[in-house]
Amino acid sequence: MTKRLLACCSLGAGLIVPTLARAQQADPVAAAALAAAPNQPLFLAEEDAGRKPLMSAIDRTGGGEMMRNIGVDISGHYEGSYTWSFSNPPGDAIAGRAFDVQHDEYLTNQIDLAIQRTIEATNDAKLGYKDKYNVGFKFEALWGYDARFIHANGLFDHYNDDTSRNEEWDIVQAYAQIGMPIGNGLLVTLGKFVTPLGFETINPTTNPLYSHSYLFGFAIPFTHTGVTAKYNFTEALSVTGGVVRGWDQALEDNNDAVSFLFVAGYTVNDKLNLTLSGITGPEQTDNNGRYRTTLDLIAAYAMSDQLTLALNADYGIDASASAGGENGQWYGVAAYAQYKINDQFAVNLRGEWFNDKDGVRGIGTNVYEATLGVAIKPFPTNALGSNLVVRPEIRYDYSENAFFDGGTDNNQLTAGADVIFTF
After folding, report:
1. Residue 151 is part of a domain; what is its CATH number?
2. Structural domain count of the chain
3. Per-residue pLDDT tens digits for 206-233
4. Distance between CA atoms of residues 230 and 262, nearest Å
5. Taking the complete model, does pTM exceed 0.70, yes or no?
6. Which residues contact 271 (CB under 8 A, 6 or more apart)?
7. Domain that holds residue 400
8. Residues 179, 181, 182, 185, Cα dihedral to 10°
């Protein structure tokens, strides 16, 4: 058991060659990211504004300049992982996890490729948008083990009939955007996109830790299909509203009703950002009258150049969804801390409580978890090597009623690590 833990934790450390850690310094890119996108985490924010390997390769073919001129970018990432549960769970199934559900197996979690043209919801002459319409888009496809957990209704449904497959395909996002010169700028998005709810994301490069929170896996949806409109009332306040097919619905819908989505982001100052988002609408199959409502709050605070804190809280209620036919509720909170030691190492900590006593989200009890991890950049100064991140972690879970190991244990201890390379 000890050997397994050491092997898991050394998955990242073994890749490190002796390098001199650079002196601690401010991270202006991370600060700018916090101000520009208050509903996105700072963790693993890009420190180098230079071109990624894929676009650098395209530059050498002569096509990069043309793509740069029209604002089109191609990028992607690879994530592979390994997780060890110290209790050897029955069927090698780790309970309560979003993606890292497999014990003692090396996985190709994600090979992701995206082509996009990013635009902003603004009517700013400095950005060249003054009194002009602007068009953007994003198409993102993913292949790997994680795809099986995020399929939206009507996309790749045939995989449900073949449980022997480990790696699958999924179209994570496929949307068009129109920037309209109305007032301060209106941004309309139409298509399939990841949910704005939640601190953590499907994309591992914007998460602080390898494993995901209960809030990510059970409290909120993964994706939506529909139309939204974002308006910047001031430089500090932006509001998004939209109509979508609901939780994880795409080319098909499980009922004939729509759901309503909103996001309000407010920059309090250069250190604190708040985001409140929610979704409401009928989500139960073949039922258009029973509403499910979920609210999500994120607060991100940059205490210093090295220390970043964040809080994510969720509340949900689903009409007549409990086993007794009553309204089912779930709620929880997750707290995050990251301390950036230098450009090579960052320590991440998450503590969480999630209540699903009504059992409508598949857990049926109170669960708690604490996770400690390290984000390691083995080659932070190398143009190619700086895109590599290794994240070993150790995690402890506790349930009020026996939930783990096939419902036989209240405790679960795991160690894991993932390797991410962005390109």
Report:
1. 2.40.160.10
2. 1
3. 999 999 999 999 999 999 999 999 999 9
4. 9
5. yes
6. 301, 302, 303
7. 2-422
8. 60
